[in-house]
Amino acid sequence: MGRRDRITRGWGGCQVPNPVVLTGDVHRHRAACMKANPSLRFVSDRRGYVHATVTPEKMTARYFDPAEVTRGVARTHVVNDGRPGLVTG
């Protein structure tokens, strides 16, 4: 059994309604839905960082590319409480 399988099975056992995984050290942006068949929603090979704001109502992730400071946020994704999946904001 792979690592992702162990993690997602653990979510099911604990009845986690909206699991979110934040990881780093890959030097790329990625956003994906992690249900039974993961699908990438956002991919960028540019270096940068993500700023996450977490409240009881939602988690908002803003992806930044410091090489393009004037452009600001490269992409924003939201995970709303009680509604599985990523919403592009």
Structure description:
The protein is mainly beta and 89 residues long. The chain has one domain (25-88). Helix content is 13%, strand content 38%. It is built from 1 helix and 6 strands. The chain has one helix at 3-14; strands at 29-33, 39-44, 49-54, 58-64, 73-80, 87-88. The strands form 2 sheets. It has a 4-stranded antiparallel β-sheet with strand order 3-4-5-6, with no helix packed on it. A hairpin with a 3-residue loop joins strand 3 (49-54) and strand 4. The radius of gyration is 14 Å and the shape is globular. The protein starts with a helix and ends with a strand.
Which key features would you list for this structure?
89 residues, mainly beta, 6 strands, two-stranded antiparallel ribbon, single chain
Brief overview, please?
This protein is mainly beta and 89 residues long.
Coarse shape: globular
**What fraction of the residues are assigned to beta strands by DSSP?**
35-45%
Low-confidence sequence ranges: none
Query: Distance between termini?
Result: 35 Å
Question: From N to C, what is the helix and strand string?
Answer: HEEEEEE
Give a short account of the largest sheet.
4 strands, antiparallel
InterPro entries: PhoD-like_sf
Protein name: PhoD-like phosphatase metallophosphatase domain-containing protein
